[in-house]
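hey m, so remember when u said the tokens were messed up on ur end? i reran from scratch. heres the input so u can diff it against urs
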Amino acid sequence: MSQQNLLDDAQAALGQGNLEQAAELLKEASSADPLNLELLQQRAVVQLQRGDTDSALTLFRRILDIDGMQLSPWLNIGNIRLATGKLQEAVQAFEMAIKIDANNALAYHGIGRALAHANEPARALPFLLKGAELEPSRADYQVWAGRVALMLGDYEKGWVLYNRADASNADDMGVRLEMAHAAEKTHRLEQALAIVDSVSGEAAWVRACRQKLSILSAMGDSRKVLAAIEGFGEPVSDGQKAEWLTAQAVALNYLGEKDQAVAAIKASLAIDDAFPNAWQARVFMDAASVTDEELSRMEALIDSQETYGKALLCFAIAEALEKRGDLAGEISWLHKGNAFQHQVAAYNHKGMDAAKDEMKRRFPDADSVVHAPAQAPDDFAPIFILGMPRSGTTLTEQILASHSAVKAGGESRAIRVSAERAKQVLGVNSEDAMYDLPRDEWVPVMRQAFLDFLREDGLDSGIVTDKNIALFRHVGTLKMLFPKARFVVVRRHPLDVMLGAYKRIFNTGQHYTYHLDDLAQQLAHFDELVEHWQTACGIPMYEMRYETLVQEQERVTRELLDFCELPFEAACLEFHKNTRQVNTASVNQVRQGLFTSASARYKRYGDLLDPFREALAKRQVAVPEE
């Protein structure tokens, strides 16, 4: 049979879906012309369609042995290696493709995906962005870049990318839901709700409901969460019912309804005891009552979970063991849980060092934080609470919020969102570019954006607190925006801070808490920047030690109120009676009042905390004598 007849028969076999016959016919045709690159390419593609990746790889390599500058084989080898988890080999193949075609979107996208799968999101993002730029109509390229941008905390960039993806494929409900997530992360909460409400289709309904609960929780209104769950109607599966009960339990707990919350989470686990989030909530709410059987069940579930689920279960087991006094077991499980979470929580050591140094360069002295024109409204007096996670910032805000003149802003994203919105108004692409503009240009714009953000929650007037964990980095900016602002520094023994943070999976951010070296770096940054703001920039701050507050509550409370120019009110001593909603990991503690057992907890652990001490010593963090 002639080669042409063999090729014709092969095409007919392909048309009929007979891949086996097509492969044999193409092989026979190729034997008469073994250097025919087109035939080899056809044979490799058919082998791929058959699922025989080894044979396909052999054929693609044969093509490259003949002509190493063929683009398609390198792209195909990259895709095969990516699909089989051989990420370094995938990167190398895609890099060869880029040498051949410097504007090949698939190759850039492929490198980005391989690096993202290798838990290197910071390296992945530039390649994903390049691929998305070269192929703006590819919704999947925009989505991948958007996901990694969100992972790295660049929420505004993620929002832009998801908007492009939605414009390319508005009918993809999955993309719409991820776009809602990006809107939530950029605090466009009303837009996020509108996007979720626009999602249709039975397949996306459960995800839409889940996303709506997340958005409403971000709005800080647990009553709306409860109302939404009621409005969802009857769950379509036991798993969904368990998920709804878990969300209900968390909302009730934030509202201070602990008994109802515990009952709801137990009901959830009775329906589906393979849901890690429910176990985490169960232990968080009532760790002391966890049984041996429940511990065994959590441990047995770990291997079947994704990385985040593994982490949740490890943290839950650790907390239950702590309540039993098994501190060695607790620390062991914490190390396991943080190792899992560290795999999925991106953190950039060098980037954070550079950001800290940039703030000191940008605001070197007292003159650099002064801006006279266009002052903030006279009736707006923010109190910014600076502290590390688990240092006592929630407690401090609860004390202040118990005063009749103070409104609690919680962990507001106002500083981040106002910077992003100001950049858009000013037409610049980075904060550095914005800060390089004359102060008279950027300060009024950013101040107004900050107030507009707070106005959405009715917090743009009067005395308002803000305890965002990242505020210590932005004191210079905040002082320029609001010269009358008060700054309260909350300090706690660094071992207690590290231990407290290491025990928690945080809902958003704080990725440095999942590795001891990262935690120590942040403590060092906090100390260095607070000292800079006080000494080099001359910004007055009230320093409150958690341990002193516990021992001398009334004296410290009076000093705190005096610094904030507030008259003393006895309600501030009974802050635990304040029924406001608290949306942080300290929700249970601030409902209980002060107790001395919370101070110097690190002493119970002895040499179990030696790795913590070593990390602090490496970063030269001052540790009071034990």
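this time it looks ok to me. The longest strand covers residues 380-386. if urs says something different then somethings off w ur setup not the seq
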